[in-house]
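G., before I forget:
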Amino acid sequence: MKKMLAMLLTGAMVFSLAACGNSSPGNAPAQSSSSSGESAAAESEPAGSPVTLNVTTTYAGEDTNAGNYQDAIAAWQEETGNKINDASASSAETFKARVISDFEMGSEPDVLFYFNGVDSNPFVEAGKVVSIEEIREVYPDYASNMKDGMMGASPADGKNYSVPVNGYWEGLFVNKAVCEAAGVDIPTADTTWDEFMEICQKVKDAGYTPIAASFAEIPHYWFEFCIYNYLTPATHNVLPGSVDDDHGKAWVNGISDMKVLYEKGFLPENTLSATDGETFQLFIDGKAAFLIDGSWKVGGIESSTDDIDNFTVTYVPGKNDRKSTDIIGGLSSGWYITRKAWDDPEKQKACVEFISYMTSDDMVSKFASVSATALKNGVQVDESQLTSLAVAGLDMVEGATGMAGAVQDQVTQEARVPVFNGMPDIVTGKADIATAVTDLLALVAAGQ
Amino acid sequence: MAGINNKRNRRHNKISLGTAGIYAVLTAWALTTIYPLFWILMNSFKDKKVIRSDSFSLPFGELFTLDNYRTAFDRVNILGAYRNSLVISLSVAAAVILLSGLASYALVRYDFKMKGLLNSMVVAGMMFPAFATIIPVIRMMNIIGLANTNQIPKSLLAVILPQIAGNLSFAIVVLRGYIAGLPVELEEAAYMEGCNIFQLFFKVVMPLCKPSFATIGIFSFLWSYNDLFTQSFFLKTKPEYSVTVLLSLLTSQEGTNYGLMASSVSLIVFPLLIVYLFLQKYIVKGLTAGAVKG
Amino acid sequence: MSSNIYKNKKPVIFFLIPAFAFLAVFLYYPFFQNILNSFRVINNLGSSAKGWNDPWFTNYVELFKDANIRTALVNTLKMIAATIVGQLGIAIMLALMVDNIKKGQKFFRTVYFFPIVIAATALGLLFNIVFLYDKGMLNQLREMFGAVKLVDFKDDAHAMLTMMIPVTWQYVGFYFIILITGLNNISDDLYEAATIDGASKWQRVRYISLPLLHNVICTCGVLAVTGALKVFDLPWIMFPKGMPSNGTWLTGTYMYYHAFESHNVDYSSAISVLIVILGVITAKIVNAVFKEKDY
């Protein structure tokens, strides 16, 4: 049986060698295709020959723009005669793993629509995507309709790599019927945090749950706004240096406010054992008054209720230096051109044209609808096509006095654990807030 | 099977209290297994808005809608996806039956030094989580040119190969149990008549194990069919989609559209049940063919 | 085994090579990589390692210190007990019953299989609605029978039970099918002979079915304990992230969490190594317990 083992081992070694061999010249296929591309370009004029682009996006599944995207690529293929191999999928964790591993193995797409936060670090750091700066050296007008400062610079090196389309905002969704039944006014731009606490108390006294949130599963939104209350739009999106400095104290104070929410009983009784889906249903069913969530939830609420006019969205009441009208939002995804496609003379131009097509003012307006954009000219939206909830969202963004990105995007999933997953222990007093923040910051530091 | 049972039960023709009790227990359990499927089918015809709040009532009148199915059939080629799924899962099931049959036979009947180790490795192979093995597999598929080709047969093969390996361990564990229960005398008799070892396997053991092979075939088929994880790495463009990938892409985000989820599950499960019923017949046939053993 | 046919061991290699070649290439080699990964620093599934851990066995030290691992192991032990007593016990009873009836065998064999073919997301939704705190099926039933206070079936006190019932229920059909196939392999002449000798139904089960099924039951035992070690989908959907308060972790869900949620892939790899080792050990124990007893 030694023979047997030997054969198994040999087999395994052949494969491991083969695998090693591949990792270094991983771009070999890219090189060969680019050289054949050159010869093809030499033979026929590059302008006329149709190109096939491999495109991967997150416009799939229930993404509100999945339909818009399919229409757009169909129209573009029709217009240019080029072909698109679309490998879009919903942005689940397996999808992220697929994208990252494709980059690792040199089988990345030509054009990618993907997150511009820490999720993009692996391929940005590896130099596998082309910066806007570099593209503009050849195509000076590339993304010229966007505000450079809002394009969503890479956390890895601060440069712009992607052209954003639609952004997000976070706001306070309100179930109007519950507020009415409890006899309270819907919070407005002028409502302060303290007034909001009184409102919550009244809602609770009327027998309703004030706030629909699962602190066990998704404490993220309340975390953002509670610490935002001790910061400003300029400082919110920055990590504290240490738990003892002013910024660190702001975090500790903010998380203490979350504990207060729990202690006052403003959250569902089972907030520490319910899932986010269950608490969201309380809000839809008229058992809870308020919900903080993102612009993507507009579609979620629209598809969950027959009476969309019963719901609205407004500013999350603020305190200290944060005005209620200072919101959280940003542009978290954008279009990338990969180095592989850029170095392929046959594909370079088509990639630029495709992204320019997908990020024109008209197209972005269509995709963005109620969410934020980086367009210099702003969005042109036909409000008559929107629900009252979507219009409320649009109004909220227009009236905003300041906007900061969600600070959690600066924190890797691994580093979020002590505060986010530890939230049940924090609000019940089993864990110390300052310790949790210290642990989070230590994990962030360790990850860099 | 029916004939055999008749023989066995001829002696107690009257239905005893015990038999009634048995049927009561079996039916009670059957209700718990039928209801969820019924519940899903029922909710697939309801508006997504009411599923969470009103999931236990029947979809009649105002509640009834076909919207969830419309979305599933909109823009997508579901028939092509079924074809891809069938190709993948049938290939996996067939390969698993053959390979695990050969291996289990040797592991049961032969005594050799490494047997203990190999048995442990088979059990270990059952425990490997898919996420832990997928990345090297993708790398290999890239090297041998099966991944990222935009060619349907190659992409399907890229799913089939690792899925065969993924189901083999389990199949070997189960088959070992069955083959160990076969009386070795039959093989001895055939050997006396001049069969060589391979004839023994294909002419004696394989036929005797038909029902067992059918069982592991069904499981391999099912797991291959439902294995979204491996599939989602290799089936990337629309023409390559399997049914599971296609429907997961319709429903995954946000996870709030319970109506679509119910219709998707129905579209995944019910064609499968038809296949299962078909194979069920095959099991019975295989059984009667193998009933000469003894 | 004792037979003369199998004294010549040359053919064995031809029987084993095809299957083990597949396993070697697509399972053992990748898992060997996974073992290496457990010593590296890897944040995202699919991204390359940032280097080796310092010291390289950090993750394994962490396994011993991690309170959640302890919870997961204890819970998984409970789950193993539940699967052996619940899943296997119920499956054996059901299989013996179905084997002893005339009509409807085919029907029961089909319907007992249903839970396995339904995606875990759908079952998870169903059970979440059944166990829902406010207006869940069970709480509504309790109200109908006069209960005043709602029970939170997902709180610390009830969570484990709420999780184990659906998981146990889901896979009964799986063992049922394996067992009934085993029962069908038993020759009817044996029952015939026993009946002629005056054996009662129970005696036939006790002295023919169970002993001859012994290998298959052993197989099911191995599958049950290893299954409990790796189960994650249904528990994860009902109790994500070890909710409530890290009390419901299983080895399977905790591994999944580190691979896909906390982006600590190397630690997850270490957990998978632990699971594999435990799987092999428990399988050996099961085999030893069931080993060739003479009835």
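Chain C has one domain: 55-289. DSSP finds 13 helices and no strands in chain C.

More on Monday.
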